Amino acid sequence: MRPLWFLLQKEFRQIFRDKGFIGRLFIAPAIQLILLPMAANFTIKNINIAIVDHDHSTVSQELADKIKSSGYFKLTGYTDFNSKADKLIENDKADIVLEIPDGFAQDLIKEGSKKVAIEVNAINGVKASVGFGYLSGIMTDYNNQIRMEMVEPTPLPAQPDIEVVPSFWYNPTLTYYIFMVPAILVSLVTGIAGLSAAFNIVKEKEIGTIEQINVTPIKKWQFILGKLLPFVVMGAVVFSFGLLIAFVGYGIAPIGNLITMYTFLLVFLFAILGFGLLISTYTETQQQANSLMFLFMMVFNMMSGLYTPIDSMPQWAKIITHLFPVSYFIDVMRMVVIKGSGFADIRFHILYVFIIGLVLNTWAILNYRKTT
Amino acid sequence: MKQLLSFVKKEFYQVFRDPKTLVMLFGLPVVQIVLFGFALTNELKNANIAVVDNAKDQASQQIINKIAGSEFFNIQKVLTSSSEIDAAFKEGKIKLAVVFPVNFYNDLMHTNKASIQVIADASDPNTATQLTNYINTIVSDYQSQLSPNSSVPYTIIPEVRMLYNPDLKGAPNFVPGVMAMVLLLVCVMMTSVSIVREKELGTMEILLVSPVKPLMVIVAKAIPYLILSWINLAAILLLSVYALDLPIKGSLFLLVAESTLLIITALSLGLYISTVTKSQQAAMFASMLGMMLPTMLLSGYMFPIENMPVVLQVLSNIVPAKWYYIIVKDVMLKGLGFSAIWKETLILMGMTAFFIVVALRNFKIRLE
User: Fold this and answer.
1) Do A125 and B116 lie within an 8 Å CB cutoff?
2) Burial (CB count within 10 angstroms: exposed 0-12, middle 13-18, buried 19+), residue B148
3) Tell me, what DSSP letter sits at residue B167?
4) Which residue of A has its CA nearest to B118?
5) Which pLDDT tens digit goes with each residue over B225-275?
């Protein structure tokens, strides 16, 4: 056990003497946790709309007012020239152009229906369909309103009417950052712990100091453990710091049990550090380790459900996602922090990540060579 | 000139003799295109839900069948009481629960009015609203089936045209973003790290005492990454045209020229980072924080800029990728010419000039 103790002493000293490193350890989480949730907002509002009004009737103007006052749209142009409106979409000044034809109000009454043309910039497909959804919702509402004004009123609803009453649990205001902050914390811990672990051994290789360790009587597993433990501590510190920022900055206090969360954190760190060590046994220079880690981190981040739901992925992608520990942790954090899920709810998550960690660490130990 | 050439050769050897880094460099665009093109989507399908049917009558059964039959939902659980919903949410098995009240059909037939409760797990707000909307659509569909013969007067019919992307695919939005990401990554991170590496290993000293001018040492470092970036650009464009069916509507020459401008911007930023950092880890960190994060967040391809707080909207103007993203969208997807993008081009050029000037002022030819 003594060699392990010496190695640990060396590692901690190395970490604490690198002032820049300690700074990075805290600056990165702070910046990410403050910036990301502000930016990562998929709520769609402030859609730029331009209206081409050939009709100039009270009806067309009322419709325009309705759109303006809905809160979803920003009127960026109101004209009666087609050509100008087309230019607005081309120049990104408008996302949607609504064209009300000449004689709109008259024909609506005479012929019973009238078409209006809507053009949408659909480069961002989600934004386009949501924006069009809002617009057609407003038009239907307005349509019902004028119908009420024009048709004789009846006492009872003439047709069966089913009301859908929605209620949103755990996040009734539908605030997006409540969803993002716990997950961003995961991607942070993953990045910092995984990267540092990978760099640590590779740096010794590149500079040549690993030779000195290789000639000591230390055992392979002791070496791996000695490299792993400091980063477990570091990961836990960064995680706690992140939780604190989430609480102070966003008022997010975990509803679930902290012990549940930290238990999972330990299992997760075991797995992700194993991955970092594995990368370091396969690479010779920091640049290589960085490139490989970056590629994997990007895949982890993209596929782990951080930005897009895992449920909507194709089957092959789901399988890949579940081979990585990150998606489990994001899931667990959201469950425990937002919904207050307990130990029993996440027991399979713990089991899977533990198995993944066991495989990765064994692989890393087997692949570590004390001779070159 | 000959000296510069031999230096460029040295850099090429260094890059190409490191297959692990190369794999990542060329793997990155492919992986990104495949992921964004085929795996990542916000479109929800087969969401697991639960139903609580307190009515158990004709109408509730019909609606449940309609929900089960739709591609959006998969009825995972049939609960007997609303009190079981919380536990099911906490377990994470379902995303939404539909609750029918007792006497649902009776109320509907006699008073023409009835209600359904839809409870969504709003820890994911977007999924919650989308799923609720789907249920709404299904229910109003059912409603219009109940009274098929009523004609509605005074109807406004919207006729919609989705420009540039009629099928509402995800690719047109992200391909320009991926291009920006990959070019920046290769140029900023790789250049800065490879220069700092020479410092860290001590070989910079050897380069600086060679007869080649110090500036040329740096130019020679940048050239291989410029060429690698062109190859990556070609790979992305080929993949998006042939694998994702995304046409290049504007001039290919203009697109390549503008991309080269971004590459040079990135190279000069990488150069600047290398002059202010001492270790590879610090250089990586600076590139990550200075380049990757702002590019992901503030260029507009992942998150709409107009929804962000004003501070971030203002901040987004200093992110080169934002301007490049606008340029690529205009040229590639809308098919516009140079007259539409001269302003963005000018801004990128200004940024490049700025980075080059500060990098040169910081570049030290003496050892510290």
Assistant:
1) no
2) exposed
3) T
4) A166
5) 899 899 989 998 998 888 888 888 889 999 999 999 999 999 999 988 888
Return the pLDDT at B254: 94
Closest by CA to B7, choosing from B283, B261, B280, B208, is B208
One-letter identity of residue B101: P
Task: Give tens-digit pLDDT for A303-335.
Answer: 888 877 887 788 888 888 888 899 999 989 998
pLDDT single digits (tens) A156-188: 556 677 777 888 888 888 888 888 888 888 988
Please write the tens of the pLDDT for every residue from B215-224. 788 888 888 8
What is the pLDDT, as a whole number, of residue B150? 56
Instruction: State how far the Cα of A194 lies from the Cα of A266, in Å rounded to an integer.
Output: 13
Residue spans of the domains in chain B: they are: 2-40+170-362, 47-146
* From the candidate CATH numbers 3.10.450.50, 3.40.1710.10, 3.30.70.1280, 3.40.50.10810, the one assigned to the domain spanning B47-146: 3.40.1710.10
Hey, is the C-beta of A247 within 8 angstroms of any chain B C-beta?
Answer: no
pLDDT in tens, B288-299: 777 777 787 888
pLDDT at A372 over 70: no
Determine the CATH number of domain A47-150: 3.40.1710.10
A339 touches chain B (CB under 8 A): yes
Angle between helices B19-34 and B2-16 (to 10 degrees): 70
In chain A, which among 351-370 make CB contacts under 8 A with chain B? none
More confident residue, B231 or A113: B231
B342: its two tokens: 């001269």
Average pLDDT value for residue range A233-241: 90
Encode burial over A263-297: b for 16+ CB neighbours within 10 A, e otherwise: ebbebbbbbbbbbbbbbbbebebbbbbbbbbbbbb
Residue in chain B closest to A297 (alpha carbons) equals B28
Q: In what order do the strands lie in the sheet with B73-79?
A: A161-169, B113-121, B96-100, B47-53, B73-79
CA distance B136 to chain A (A): 7
Backbone angles phi, psi at B77, to 5 degrees: -140, 145
What residues does each domain of chain A span? 10-40+174-367, 47-150
For residues A196 and A357, give the distance between their C-alpha atoms in angstroms, rounded to a whole number. 17
**A253 at B interface, C-beta within 8 A:** no
Closest chain B residue by Cα to residue A317: B39
Instruction: Check if A155 contacts B (Cβ < 8 Å).
Output: no
Query: Do B60 and B139 contact (CB within 8 A), yes or no?
Result: no
- Judged by a CB distance cut-off of 8 A, whether residue A345 touches chain B is yes
Q: Does any CB of chain B come closer than 8 Å to the CB of residue A223?
A: no
Tokens matching residue B296: 């992901």
What are the tokens at B300?
């507009």
Q: What is the pLDDT of residues B163-179, one digit of tens each?
A: 888 777 777 888 888 88
DSSP state of A338: I
* Contact residues on chain B for A343, CB-CB shorter than 8 A: none
Average pLDDT, chain B: 84
Q: What is d(CA B295, CA B175) in angstroms, rounded to the nearest whole number?
A: 14
In this prediction the ipTM stands at 0.76
Whole-angstrom distance, CA of residue A320 vs CA of residue B95: 22
Among A90, A123, A349, pick the best mutation site for testing chain B contact (most B Cβ within 10 A). A123
Q: Which of A47, A110, A367 is nearest to B307 (CA)?
A: A47
> Is B10 exposed, middle or buried (CB count within 10 Å of its CB: 0-12, 13-18, 19+)?
middle
Task: Give the tens place of pLDDT for each residue, B292-347.
Answer: 777 878 888 778 787 788 888 888 898 899 999 999 988 998 888 888 889 999 99
